[in-house]
Specification:
Largest sheet: 5 strands, antiparallel
CATH topology of the largest domain: Phosphatase 2c, domain 1
CATH class of the largest domain: Alpha Beta
Helix content: 55-70%
Oligomer: single chain
Distance between the termini: 35 Å
CATH superfamily of the largest domain: PPM-type phosphatase domain
Number of helices: 16
Structural class: alpha+beta
Number of domains: 3
Radius of gyration: 39 Å
Length: 532
């Protein structure tokens, strides 16, 4: 019973419920009055919030009193309603109106005042006094009960919103925490900062064509090595190499000493510039790490101040999925990553990430990008924003490792079946509808190479019934082009996306598609899905 009353109360408090509030005021006054009194109508008015709802209940109840009560009883009832409304209007901008007992006490007090004035005019018997007190008490209790229902509904709505907010904050915090951690997990970059590289490159350009090359770098290699090693401290301290930095025997035996010194100084300048650049880059990287870490801590703290997590989306799922991975010939692991999941807000996300190269290193990069992107999307971060964040992080990493990753992301609203496709350097996607195949492509570079200020423009389309959306990595079509893939997809008569993926993977193998990692994700909207 309490649940039904609470549900009715929520409807009356909605914007559309103003007409219902008017009707409820009239109904409670006309049909649920007792002995010329309507306590429920008075209680309803006292518990209403907002001028519009107050006026709706007052008007409906007043008309109900005129239509269904005796003149004197109806006049008293209208007087109570007007007094309550006037008190609420007078205290509208004060804190008194928000206090727990203000509304029920106002309703009981105004009722007591009006009813008592009527009783005093005709004399008060014991029975009338008892009925008077019972009526006033009943008005106060009913007003308090309706106010409690209203506060419970507000609390439930607030808790639900806070719970959803907390989950989004927790997921966002986890995403930024992993983003911060990804910097510390970066592979060791190639080392071209050793000063020996200066002499190696100078010798490559000058000594290779010298007639004494075999003697200096063969028979007397140790002597040459020691001479260059002795010259290194002074060269680095000064920032320039001079002849006096080298032992006398080296200066007299080197036939191309001026050219060698010029080449050394050129390489040394490049080395020092690289060091300066990397120091600045590391400073910016550390700053970014700190910002991501601080943002993660802030979001995590904010999440802890909210309610508990909300349940996952549980609506109709009118689709089926298929997917497959295949490593490059000779590799044990596939460098591609495929991911599909639903968010609590009712979005279906399909993702293919192709790490640069193949093997474990490529798999590490694609897994890292996919995991971070999934966390942002689960936190209901807009896809374009999430992609720009991932691209910025991978750009910082690519400065250190030289690696990059393609991202192929499909986001579909399950309820409306509107889809958006985002591509960072990804292979084409194929949309089959009514037997015709459409090829969808993007022009953005892979994540880590794309401009930091822009995200790939989404390709939007509806996913109708009996529609296939096929996402592939570039290893599937291989060097033979994708005409065969489009023809196979167009001629497919089944409705099982996993069987379609298996068929295409087999065909890809026979057409030489083993030169790179291969992956597929296929979405099929069932023929029996309801129209939207």
């Amino acid at each position: 019973m309490r649940l039904r009353v609470r549900s009715l109360w929520k409807k009356l408090q909605s914007p559309i419920g103003q007409l219902g509030a008017f009707a409820a005021g009239g109904f409670l006054t006309t049909l649920l009055s007792m002995d010329g009194r309507a306590p429920l109508a008075i209680a309803l008015l006292s518990a209403c919030c907002g001028r519009d709802h107050l006026l709706a209940v007052l008007t409906g109840s007043a008309l109900g009193a005129v239509a269904g009560m005796a003149f004197n009883a109806g006049l008293r009832h209208c007087a109570v309603l007007v007094l309550i409304y006037s008190v609420f209007a007078a205290f509208r901008d004060t804190q008194f109106l928000q206090r727990p007992l203000f509304r029920p006490l106002t309703a009981a007090g105004m009722t007591a005042a009006v009813e008592l004035s009527a009783l005093l005019q005709g004399g008060i018997s014991r029975e009338e006094a008892a009925g008077y007190l019972t009526y006033v008490l009943l008005v106060g209790l009913l007003s308090h009960y309706l106010q409690l229902l209203q506060e419970t509904g507000r609390s439930e709505g607030k808790n639900s919103a806070l719970s959803a907010l907390r989950k989004r904050l927790e997921l966002s915090a986890a995403a930024f925490r992993d983003l911060y951690s990804s910097f510390t997990r970066s592979p060791t970059p190639r080392n071209d900062e050793n000063p020996a590289v200066v002499f190696d490159r100078a010798a490559e350009s000058v000594c290779r064509g010298c007639g004494n090359c075999s003697r200096c770098w063969g028979q007397e290699y140790i002597t040459t090595f020691n001479a260059l090693n002795d010259a290194t401290p002074a060269m680095l301290r000064r920032g320039r190499s001079l002849a006096e930095d080298y032992p006398e025997h080296f200066r007299t035996q080197c036939e191309n000493l001026p050219k060698f010194l010029a080449a050394v100084n050129q390489e040394l300048t490049a080395l020092l510039l690289r060091r300066q650049y990397r120091r600045r880059l590391e400073t910016e990287r550390q700053r970014a790490r700190g910002q991501y870490a601080q943002l993660s801590e802030f979001l995590n703290y904010a999440a802890q101040q909210s309610g508990e997590a909300v349940p996952a989306f549980s609506g109709e799922r009118p689709y089926r999925l298929g997917g497959a991975l295949r490593p490059k010939d000779g590799e044990r692991v596939c460098g591609d990553t495929i991911v599909h999941f639903e968010t609590d807000s009712g979005k279906l996300c399909l993702l293919i990430s192709d790490g640069m190269g193949s093997g474990q290193e490529a798999q590490r990069e694609s897994l890292n990008a996919s995991k971070l992107l999934e966390q942002f999307l689960r936190a209901d971060v807009e896809p374009a924003t999430a992609l720009k964040t991932i691209n910025a992080a991978l750009t910082l990493r690519s400065e250190e490792t030289g690696a990059f990753t393609t991202v192929d992301l499909l986001v579909m609203d399950i309820a409306t079946r509107e889809a958006a496709l985002y591509k960072y350097g990804a292979a084409p996607t194929y949309l089959k509808r009514h037997g015709a195949v459409r090829r969808l492509t993007g022009s953005a570079l892979p994540a880590g190479l794309q401009d930091l200020r822009s995200a790939p423009a989404p390709i939007r389309f509806p996913v109708e019934r009996d529609t296939f959306v096929l996402m592939v990595s570039d290893g599937v079509a291989g060097d033979a082009g994708d005409d065969w893939l489009q023809n196979t997809l167009a001629g497919w008569q089944g409705d099982d996306p996993q069987r379609l993926v298996s068929l295409l993977m087999g065909e890809s193998r026979s057409r030489g598609g083993l030169k790179d990692d291969s992956s597929m994700l296929c979405l099929y909207m069932d023929r029996g899905a309801k129209e939207v």
